[in-house]
Design a protein that fits this description.
Order of helices and strands of chain A: HHHHHHHHHHHHHHH
Largest sheet of chain A: none
Number of helices of chain B: 19
Shape of chain B: globular
Strand content of chain A: under 5%
Distance between the termini of chain A: 6 Å
Distance between the termini of chain B: 99 Å
Helix content of chain B: 40-55%
Number of strands of chain B: 17
Radius of gyration of chain A: 25 Å
Strand content of chain B: 15-25%
Structural class of chain A: mainly alpha
Number of strands of chain A: 0
Largest sheet of chain B: 5 strands, mixed
Shape of chain A: globular
Number of helices of chain A: 15
Oligomer: heterodimer
Structural class of chain B: alpha/beta
Helix content of chain A: over 70%
Chain lengths: 318, 461
């Protein structure tokens, strides 16, 4: 048990104690749960089963396979993982690779890194600057996606963009951000967009650290890095893990970059979410293949979620 | 009076009263206009401005007036669609699949087989009734043009026109580079030499020819087909019903793209790969940055026409046009010297419409001679009716006269749109430098074989 952790009175940990004071018998509880269970079954379980079944067919929305879909076994999955093709731009493997780069770049490094930096910079500080920075970062997080995407296109555009107007004026030329550095552009965009969550989580977590630890460290002459390494990092490890897993999950499924690049140029920013959209909702609307992608995505997400839950449990136990 | 007789009398009386009530109510109900909706990729002051203006200020008001005078008022609402063609198609697919959508829909002809195959569309005679076959207009629309919205011998709608494709060029830039006018290349070599001359004269983008997936069907029609037909063959062999997936002609075509975009930078690959590239190419042409642009006649009559946001000032003086040459004289499709391809659009009636008769009444009205003539005055184009001339645009008439004889069409098959997407991808892979022409063709052959089946594809040596 880490220092500073409150030791709970043993009686509260005993479930039996609570049971005795229960107002309703357990059976009544199930009745109260029924609406939720129904909701989950209708809106989560049923679509999941349906998508799973669809993934073994060649169902489309247009063309002759629309009214007469056939069972194709594992063909959709085999096509996704076809070793000769899957790493080509616009194929599943390539989309996965781009997504991993996007998650590492924008979530793990960008959002978590920047969030930690801002939280740390304003640790135990009050004042206008802190409020201004926090407000701006949160604003970037809560503005509707389409609005944000539009402002970023207006910012990054080669010809008319604000950024290039500025750079050009000071003689730095006009880099073609969305064309030559599309992946970097969307990583930058998504870091900007989502830093608020990590920042809030870390700054909240920092508040829980007793000031006496830091003061003691300062008395013995620890520098900023030593304080971070020996006090903050060990105490925040749990929060950091929670944050990383959650933002990985969210970033993995993020679709907004589509509004900036449409997955291009030449499919270089085609994230798995965009790949799924293009397969299932564009062209012929290949629902069968789209479902197969969705099932694989679901498994990846499930794995991430399990890691998250396991890590929470481990923290509780230790 | 016995009880039963009394009840019978009451019943009869109430029935009679109900009947009288219904009769007296029916004229009152007819006063309530029937609402019919129509949609197209057209916005007043935006894309296809002319069409939107004609519908909202002419066709719809005069129709509503006529119907009101006949005592059967109809209220027609035009729903503007401001997105791209591919997005409109998505919208239709989703709308129709859930049994909804607008009553009259502007449709690109090549979408029809895929939608019919999916059971989302029904023949016109089935949606409205057999009386559609008695419409006077059919006698004035050639078989070839009726085929635009026909599939397996059934009519699905009324066409609104066909088109041709050619090279548009800026005469001012040609003069600047010292190229003699009027200009008409007779081979690819001559076309590319002109582009090089323009480049030497400092023209940023000498030749823009469509490629890539972002441009959708514009890549296949205005880009790939225009080169491929010049290399000697079609995408599809109409005689044996097979798709040509590998050939020296395809390689020539891809190498042409490679020369233009990768090797010599005669065109701007950015425009082909970015999302809104096609609009950018229009803007660049307007601003005098593009020397030659291969486009359909829609570009002339709508994109750079007066009143459009990308209008070219003094269009008739500044912009010239030339036919797309074959690789060498006589080396084109069917041994032609010049090549082009035609598409076509039109209007369909939604099988889910609650008012098929009224929708048909408006559709046939807007396709009547007087209405089509009125549209010609707003936007001169190749008319679908043989009793309506191209009105007052000598350039449009000249393009039609020169090019229709060389034209061909896409195969009307449900597989076509998928294969077209593979074409766009193949050109994208070459233009972006991702693949060599050989590798791109191999990937194309593999994908098309998967789509059409090994029995329906062939290789030309």
């Amino acid at each position: 048990m880490g220092p500073g952790r409150v030791a709970w009175p043993p009686s509260l940990l005993e479930r039996n104690v609570e049971r005795k004071h229960a107002i309703f018998p357990a059976r009544v509880g199930i009745i109260f749960l029924t609406p939720t269970i129904l909701f989950v079954v209708v809106f989560l379980l049923y679509p999941f089963v349906r998508v799973f079944l669809l993934s073994f067919t060649n169902q489309t929305l247009l063309g002759t396979t629309a009214p007469n879909p056939e069972f194709v076994g594992l063909a959709n999955y085999q096509r996704l993982f076809d070793p000769d093709r899957w790493m080509r731009l616009g194929e599943f493997g390539s989309a996965l690779e781009i997504t991993v780069q996007f998650v590492v770049g924008s979530a793990l490094i960008g959002q978590a890194g920047l969030g930690m930096l801002i939280a740390w910079a304003f640790y135990r500080k009050r004042g206008v600057l802190r409020e201004a920075v926090f407000t701006l970062v949160i604003l970037a997080w809560i503005i509707p996606e389409t609005v944000v995407a539009f402002t970023w296109v207006a910012f990054l555009d080669w010809e008319f963009g604000t950024l290039n107007s500025v750079l050009d004026t000071i003689g730095l030329g006009r880099p073609d951000w969305l064309f030559d550095r599309p992946l970097h552009s969307i990583i930058l965009f998504n870091s900007w967009r989502g830093t608020a969550f990590s920042m809030l989580l870390f700054s909240g977590a920092l508040e829980t650290i007793p000031p006496s630890y830091v003061e003691t460290a300062e008395v013995v002459g620890a520098n900023a890095w030593q304080k971070f390494r020996d006090i903050f990092f060990p105490l925040l490890r749990g929060h950091i893990l929670t944050d990383l897993i959650l933002i990985t999950l969210w970033t993995f499924n993020v679709f907004t970059p589509f509004l900036l690049t449409g997955g291009g140029p030449a499919k270089r920013t085609e994230l798995v979410s965009i790949y799924t959209y293009r397969t299932a909702f564009m062209g012929r609307h290949e629902f069968g293949k789209g479902s197969a992608i969705a099932v694989v995505m679901m498994l990846i997400n499930l794995t991430l979620a399990l890691i998250y839950l396991a890590s929470i449990r481990r923290r509780r136990v230790t | 009076m016995s009880r039963s007789k009394f009840l019978t009398l009451m019943l009869v009386t109430s029935l009679v009263m109900a009947l009288v009530g219904a009769l007296s109510a029916s004229p009152a109900q007819a006063q309530e206009p029937v609402k019919v909706t129509i949609t197209a990729r057209a916005v007043v002051g935006g894309v296809n401005n002319n069409l939107a203006v004609w519908l909202t200020t002419f066709a719809i008001p005069t129709f509503e007036e006529m119907m009101a005078a006949q005592g059967t008022p109809v209220d027609v609402e035009f729903v503007e669609f401001g997105g791209g063609d591919e997005q409109l198609k998505e919208q239709y697919a989703l709308d129709l699949s859930v049994g909804s959508g607008y009553d009259i829909m502007a449709f690109d002809g090549f979408w029809v087989p895929e939608f019919v195959g999916a059971g989302l569309l029904k023949p016109l005679a089935e949606v409205v009734g057999p009386e559609v076959n008695d419409w006077e207009g059919w006698g004035h629309i050639s078989e070839g043009i009726q085929a635009i919205l026909s599939y397996q011998g059934q009519r699905y709608g009324i066409p609104s026109g066909t088109d041709v494709r050619q090279i548009f060029y800026r005469k001012d830039l040609f003069e600047q580079a010292g190229i003699a006018l009027p200009w008409q290349p007779t081979s690819w070599a001559e076309l590319l030499d002109t582009a090089r001359t323009l480049k030497e004269a400092g023209i940023e983008i000498p030749l823009q020819i469509n490629a890539g997936t972002a441009m959708g069907e514009a890549t296949t029609m205005q880009g790939y087909f225009m080169v491929l037909l010049g290399a000697g063959h079609h995408l599809y062999d109409f005689d044996d019903g097979k798709w040509i997936v590998k050939s020296p002609g395809i390689l020539d075509t891809l190498n042409f793209y490679k020369t233009v975009y990768v090797d010599e930078g005669l065109g701007d690959a950015r425009m082909q790969l970015l999302q809104d590239g096609r609009n950018r190419s229009f803007v660049a042409f307007r601003d005098g940055q593009v020397g030659m642009l291969v486009e359909g006649d829609w570009f002339w009559r709508s994109v750079i026409a007066p009143g459009s946001e990308t209008a070219v000032e003094n269009r008739n003086e500044v912009v010239g046009w030339a036919m797309m040459p074959a690789k060498e004289p006589g080396a084109g499709y069917r041994g032609q010297d010049f090549v082009t391809i035609s598409g076509g659009t039109g209007w369909l009636i939604n099988p889910n419409t609650p008012h098929p008769k009224e929708a048909w009444a408006f559709l046939s009205y807007m396709s009547s001679r007087d209405q089509v003539r009125a549209f010609e005055l707003i936007q001169p184009r190749i008319s679908f009716r043989d009793d309506v001339e191209v009105a007052g645009d000598a350039v449009m008439t000249a393009m039609a006269n020169a090019l229709l004889q060389y034209s061909t069409v896409r195969p009307m098959l449900p597989e076509y749109p998928l294969i077209s997407t593979e074409i766009q991808l193949m050109t994208e892979r070459v233009v972006s430098g991702e693949m060599s022409p050989e590798d791109a063709m191999d990937a194309f052959a593999e994908a098309v074989t998967e789509i059409a089946g090994a029995d329906n594809v062939k290789t030309l040596e």
